[in-house]
């Protein structure tokens, strides 16, 4: 049985889960809490971070980027990178945008400070960092709006790994109630389309112990 080691509010775990669901690949989900990493997990990923995917032949792939590339190569239909080289390049560009730029400017500033810092015994949240994350998210929402106004989906005509990656990050922040959707209606419409897909149902069912999701988190119509 395939296995995926993941954490609820990890956007990299979430994007992997959604891609597996879109490809209809069954797997056993195993929770790894960043503040309670078992020693045995380091044999799967020396970084000690989820996600880690174990295929049904025992092959072990750590880190969301190689996992998603592996899934596209081994389970290539349907493809969520695109069929043409230019399309695949644009999808990968946007994946990098959200996994690197958005994560550094928004996701880490909000999720780490609000949820993980205290659980990892590193004190209370830094309000200045939270304010920075809340300020930075507006530019990214405007970029999503700009893209979705010119394309059917973020990277082009088809739903792709770019949409999955962006939605994975936004969903973590939306769980906390920190996405100002009403100020960015075009981005809100795009996210509503993503969260209504069957592959997103398990994400919306996530509940972090001791932290309830925002009231609209599971509402497909906000």
Tally the helices: 7
Major beta sheet, specifics?
4 strands, mixed
Radius of gyration of CA atoms, rounded to a whole number: 17 Å
Strand order of the largest sheet: 2-1-3-4
Which percent range fits the helix content? Answer: 40-55%
Q: SS-based structural class?
A: alpha+beta
Broad CATH class of the largest domain: Mainly Alpha
The averaged pLDDT comes out at 96
The arrangement of helices and strands along the chain is: EHEEEHHHHHH
Number of strand segments:
4
* Residue share in β-strands: 5-15%
Distance between the termini: 36 Å
Query: How many domain regions?
Result: 2
CATH-derived architecture of the largest domain: Up-down Bundle
> Quick one: overall form?
globular
If you consult CATH, what is the topology of the largest domain? Answer: Glutathione S-transferase Yfyf (Class Pi), Chain A, domain 2
Description:
By secondary structure, this protein is α+β, with helices and mostly antiparallel strands. The protein folds into two domains: 3-74, Glutaredoxin (3-Layer(aba) Sandwich), CATH 3.40.30.10; 85-205, Glutathione S-transferase Yfyf (Class Pi), Chain A, domain 2 (Up-down Bundle). It has helices at residues 11-22, 64-74, 85-119, 127-150, 161-175, 185-195, 201-205; strands at 3-6, 28-31, 52-54, 60-62. The protein has a four-stranded mixed beta sheet, with helices on one face. A hairpin with a 5-residue loop joins strand 3 and strand 4 (60-62). The longest helix is centred in the middle third of the chain and has 35 residues, at 85-119. The model has no long low-confidence stretch (mean pLDDT 96).
């Amino acid at each position: 049985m395939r296995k995926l080691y993941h954490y609820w509010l990890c956007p990299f775990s979430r994007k992997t889960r959604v891609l597996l669901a879109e490809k209809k690949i069954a797997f056993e989900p195993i929770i790894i809490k960043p503040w309670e990493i078992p020693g045995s997990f380091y044999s799967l990923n020396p970084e000690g971070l989820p996600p880690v995917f174990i295929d049904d032949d025992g092959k072990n792939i750590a880190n969301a980027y190689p996992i998603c590339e592996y899934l596209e190569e081994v389970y290539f239909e349907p493809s969520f990178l695109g069929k043409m080289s230019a399309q695949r390049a644009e999808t990968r560009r946007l994946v990098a945008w959200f996994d690197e730029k958005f994560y550094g400017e928004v996701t880490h500033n909000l999720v780490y400070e609000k949820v993980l810092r205290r659980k990892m015994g590193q004190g209370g949240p830094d309000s200045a960092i939270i304010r920075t994350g809340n300020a930075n998210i507006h530019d990214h929402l405007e970029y999503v709006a700009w893209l979705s106004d010119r394309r059917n989906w973020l990277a082009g005509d088809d739903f792709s790994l770019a949409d999955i990656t962006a939605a994975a990050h936004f969903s973590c922040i939306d769980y906390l109630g920190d996405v100002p959707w009403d100020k960015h209606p075009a981005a809100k419409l795009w996210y509503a389309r993503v969260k209504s897909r069957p592959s997103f149902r398990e994400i919306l069912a996530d509940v972090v112990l001791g932290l309830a999701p925002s009231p609209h988190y599971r509402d497909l119509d906000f």
